[in-house]
């Protein structure tokens, strides 16, 4: 799908992927029929002769559905009628031990499963993109902000690392949720199983699930509340941090000379103001993230007051209703595209740091660490320097060293400290106020020092590789189960 960079207009896709769009209700009803017939034959509930007749009818019904103009399946009865038209009432044996309840619960769980995998794949693509930016900028000094004010110098690599670390936690949640998502309701019938020896474990395996949701009532009714809402919460959680990332880039555009912005190809011009280049995709991502959060909340509100057995809740986070994951995949694709167009100007970022006194705390720390000056004495000294500098318009690179010596003498006298001579040479004084010195000398695990960031990013890369392998394994497993089901079903027709 072509991604629009302008914030207006609707270009939301119908599903999380082409595969998800193809694997609609009709697809899953047919897969469930195939799995049911294989299991019924294996357990002897239907005879080989009956299984063959019904299997051939199922093949004919699937062919009928593929004809131009065929009505899409939205219920089990039209498919059953197609089977009856082929082989009479014998076709209804395929419905042994089943109900709309367990069929709809299962097919929606299968669709949710694929939506979660599609979300995970797009999420990993974004993680990889941000990791690349981080690795390229371990020595790109930038300001960090608290309360909207420059606070400390860090690096862009360190900033990206923070979000990448949080995204690891999101993938932890995906992995943990998978154990609950990839469970089948099929064979529980309405909610209490049936009088037939239905092999629910086998049904689950044939459809690629890890097993059944054991309790019948839980499988067709109760789990349809918490499991979809759990996954919707994952998408919502990611969306909240996506808005933060985009907001940080958007704030750059309030400056006349940003140090981080999108390539001009990612902007559109104003219809009236010739100087403007609007970063529409940033606003579109933020709006899309809000759509994800809103859709997730809608799912909660739709579910919170429904009685058991209410069909509407069975697809509350799927394509047909709130479409949490359709919105979320679109959000991730837009975000990835935005980051692919990101331009970083290190010299301008350094200029921004040097235009304020973001490194002043380092004076107090160096005086304490190297010269045993109590921190509060050093802090008072640095604070008085900043006060005078802002009054006179001095920058860290232009502040008179002689004034620093004078201020230190005054502060030590005022606080009763023993020695009024500034123990920093002129070169040391100016060095201490540079972002490179401040960041490079920070210590401890998780600091923005380049070596620390590089080590951290190695672990991020390792974990991302593991998550990509996990995702690939889940997709491969589903493909192999699909092939197994088709092979076993074809055997019934011989």
User: In what order do the strands lie side by side in the largest sheet?
Assistant: 1-2
Any idea what the radius of gyration is? 31 Å
Q: Could you say which overall geometry the principal axes of the C-alpha atoms support?
A: elongated
Q: What pattern of helices and strands is seen along the backbone? A: HHHHHEEHEHEHEEEHHEHHHHHHH
Percentage of residues in DSSP E strands: 5-15%
What is the straight-line distance between the termini? 42 Å
**SS-derived structural category:** mainly alpha
Which residues form runs of ≥5 with pLDDT under 50?
A: none
Number of strands: 8
Using the coordinates shown, work out and report the CATH topology of the largest domain. Fumarase C, Chain A, domain 2
What is the secondary structure topology, with strand pairs?
Layout: H1 18-22, H2 25-42, H3 48-65, H4 76-87, H5 100-136, E1 141-146, E2 149-155, H6 156-181, E3 183-184, H7 200-206, E4 211-212, H8 216-252, E5 260-262, E6 268-269, E7 277-278, H9 280-303, H10 324-340, E8 342-344, H11 346-354, H12 361-371, H13 375-392, H14 401-415, H15 426-432, H16 435-440, H17 450-492
Parallel strand pairs: 3-4
Antiparallel strand pairs: 1-2, 5-8, 6-7
Helix pairs in contact: 2-3, 2-5, 2-17, 3-4, 5-6, 5-8, 5-10, 5-17, 6-8, 6-17, 8-9, 8-10, 9-10, 12-13, 13-14
């Amino acid at each position: 799908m072509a991604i629009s960079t302008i914030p207006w207009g609707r270009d939301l896709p119908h599903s999380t992927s082409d595969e998800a769009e193809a694997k609609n209700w009709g697809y899953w009803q047919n897969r469930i029929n195939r799995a049911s017939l294989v299991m019924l034959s294996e357990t002897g509930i239907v005879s080989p002769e009956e299984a063959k007749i019904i299997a051939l009818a199922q093949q004919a019904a699937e062919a009928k559905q593929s004809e131009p103009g065929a009505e899409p399946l939205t219920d089990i009865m039209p498919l059953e009628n197609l089977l009856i038209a082929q082989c009479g009432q014998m076709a209804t044996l395929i419905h042994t031990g089943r109900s709309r309840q367990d069929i709809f619960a299962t097919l929606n769980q299968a669709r949710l499963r694929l939506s979660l995998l599609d979300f995970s794949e797009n999420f990993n693509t974004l993680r990889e993109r941000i990791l690349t930016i981080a690795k390229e900028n371990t020595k790109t000094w930038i300001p960090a902000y608290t309360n909207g004010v420059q606070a400390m110098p860090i690096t862009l690599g360190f900033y990206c690392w923070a979000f990448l670390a949080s995204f690891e936690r999101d993938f932890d949640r995906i992995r943990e949720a998978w154990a609950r998502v990839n469970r089948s309701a099929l064979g529980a019938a309405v909610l209490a199983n049936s009088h037939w020896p239905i092999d629910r474990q086998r049904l689950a395996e044939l459809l690629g699930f890890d097993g059944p949701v054991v309790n019948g009532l839980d499988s067709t009714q109760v789990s349809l509340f918490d499991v979809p809402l759990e996954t919707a919460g994952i998408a919502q959680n990611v969306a909240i941090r996506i808005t933060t990332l985009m907001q940080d880039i958007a704030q750059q555009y309030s400056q006349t000379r940003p140090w981080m912005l999108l390539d001009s190809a990612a902007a559109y011009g104003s219809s009236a103001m010739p100087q403007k280049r609007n970063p529409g995709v940033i606003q579109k991502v933020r709006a899309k993230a809000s759509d994800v959060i809103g859709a997730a909340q809608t799912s909660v509100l739709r579910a919170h007051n429904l009685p058991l057995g209410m069909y509407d809740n069975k697809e509350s986070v799927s394509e047909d209703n709130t479409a949490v994951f359709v919105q979320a995949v679109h959000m991730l694709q837009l975000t990835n595209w935005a980051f692919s167009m990101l331009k970083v100007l290190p010299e301008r970022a350094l200029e921004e740091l040097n235009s304020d006194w973001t490194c002043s705390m380092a004076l107090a720390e160096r005086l304490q660490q190297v010269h045993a000056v109590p921190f509060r004495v050093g802090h008072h000294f640095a604070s008085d320097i900043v006060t005078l500098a802002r009054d006179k318009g001095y920058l860290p690179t232009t502040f008179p060293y002689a004034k620093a010596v004078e201020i230190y003498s005054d502060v030590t006298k005022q606080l009763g400290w023993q020695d009024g001579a500034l123990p920093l040479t002129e070169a040391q004084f100016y060095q201490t106020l540079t972002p490179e010195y401040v960041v490079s000398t920070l210590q401890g695990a998780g600091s923005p020092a380049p070596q620390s960031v590089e080590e951290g990013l190695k672990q991020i890369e390792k974990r991302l590789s593991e998550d990509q392998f996990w995702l690939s394994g889940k997709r491969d497993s589903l493909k192999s189960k699909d092939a197994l089901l088709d092979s076993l079903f074809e055997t019934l027709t011989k």
